[in-house]
Design a protein that fits this description.
By secondary structure, the protein is mainly alpha-helical. The protein has 5 helices and 3 strands.
Length: 95
């Protein structure tokens, strides 16, 4: 019971923080904005921007993971938790 309550509270806090955090859209952000996310350094930011320029916008997180070396399912999940989004939405911005 306590574990369930703890995980529910942790999920609520994570959702609250992600809602109030400014998002970085992989389809419009430049390298500097991408580097602001924990887990994206200069090389990965450049790879994202270069692949987007070569292949067009990313359809979703799975597409991003397939097209950019080193971004598998777990990496894209973690980056999305940090504020990475794919596609335009009401909260996305360049940061």
């Amino acid at each position: 019971m306590f574990k369930r309550l703890f995980f529910l509270a942790a999920a609520f806090v994570a959702a609250f923080l992600s809602f109030h955090a400014q998002a970085v859209d992989a389809n419009i952000a430049d390298e500097a904005a991408l580097r602001e996310l924990k887990g994206i350094g200069p090389a990965r930011a450049k790879a994202i921007v270069d692949e987007r320029a070569a292949g067009g916008p990313f359809k979703d997180a799975a597409d991003l993971g397939r097209r950019v070396k080193g971004l598998g399912g777990q990496a894209t999940d973690r980056l999305q938790a940090e504020g990475l989004t794919i596609g335009a939405g009401p909260r996305e911005s360049l940061r």
